[in-house]
Amino acid sequence: MRIQCFNLFPAAILSTLLILPRSAHADEFIFKLHGITLGEATFAYLDPPSDSPIKMENDSRPSYQLQVSGTTRGAVSLFKDYSASFHSNQITTGLRHYRVDAIDRGTKETRHIVFSTAHNVLPQVLDFTDRTQELPLRVSEALDQGRIDPLHALQNILASINRHRKCEARYAVYDGKRRYQVEVLPVDANNQNKGEAPKSQLRCAVTLRTQTVDMAHSSNERRLTPEAHGGQGAKPKQNLKTTDERSGFWPFKKAQQSMVIHFQDGATGFRFSAFEIASPIGTIRGLRTPLE
Predict the structure, then answer these.
(1) Using CA atoms, how far apart are residues 6 and 52, in angstroms rounded to an integer?
(2) Per-residue DSSP letters for 259-279?
(3) pTM greater than 0.85
(4) 48, exposed or middle or buried, with CB in 10 Å at 0-12, 13-18, 19+?
């Protein structure tokens, strides 16, 4: 289902589940609008490898690596046949590799972007093929230093819930096709303060705002190559704005997309339990279904 909330919800499910490591836990979600099935997605929670730089907290709450996959379903697949898998893995060198493998209406799509933990290093697009876009979004030295990939942002949200039971954060994201800001705020803040919200359940309001650079001030932007991150040229004036023209949140092209993510605590820590995605014609609901 190509609702591009972090570009996470679409993907190919069955093949992914067959190759998941034994240490992984997985939850499947069905997304519906007014009772009509739009798609399904699987969130796999993988334990970090023994040589991973991801650190565990003293309370031993889990710090999972996420792997997401899904596909469109039902009548919607007649005009939007899409499936994909998403990976974001950090290696010991301090680099994080974001990979997308997708099929859009029979056309193969790929993305491979490398991010550094250093805030002064730009993302590097190593591979990009897309059915509707020939080239990746040009990277700006002024705007894109320190950005992370969308799956990493979602992983950070989950880690914050598990470690601190908080969902207050902002992330600057780049995914090869667009850049956007992700703002995370608690939905149940008032009730939690009164002790009314169950401690085993949390809800976070997540807002995505797509951003573009005013073309009048983007002359110093350049196409990204694996060697591009070392440049020291003058930075263009920042004139970052939200646009209504190319946010690309299918099926409703809006510059701002909002959703509520539900988390449920359990034996393996907090995990995603439901999604409520706002749209002009109703709420798209993603509900967890038991995996057999």
Answers:
(1) 24
(2) EEEEEE--TT--EEEEEEEEE
(3) no
(4) middle
* Distance between start and end Cα atoms, the chain: 22
* Cβ pair 84, 11 in contact under 8 A: yes
Residue owning tokens 């993302």: 123
Q: How many structural domains are present in the chain?
A: 1
What are the tokens at 200?
Answer: 């085993």
4 lies in some domain: no
pLDDT at 80 (0 to 100)? 81
Report the SS3 class of residue 195.
coil
The set of residues, in sequence order, having a beta carbon less than 8 Å from that of 253 and lying 6+ positions away, is 244, 245, 246, 247
**Residue 285 structural domain:** 13-228+236-289
Can you read off the two tokens belonging to residue 248? 């690309």
- Whether residue 269 lies inside any domain: the answer is yes
Q: Which CA distances in Å does 253 have to 205, 241, 285? A: 20, 16, 18
pLDDT along the chain (292 residues), means of 10: 43 38 77 93 81 47 78 83 92 88 95 93 96 94 93 94 92 94 83 61 93 45 36 40 41 69 92 93 90 54
Indicate whether 105 belongs to any domain. yes
Tokens 């993510």 correspond to 261
Amino acid identity for residue 9 in this structure: F
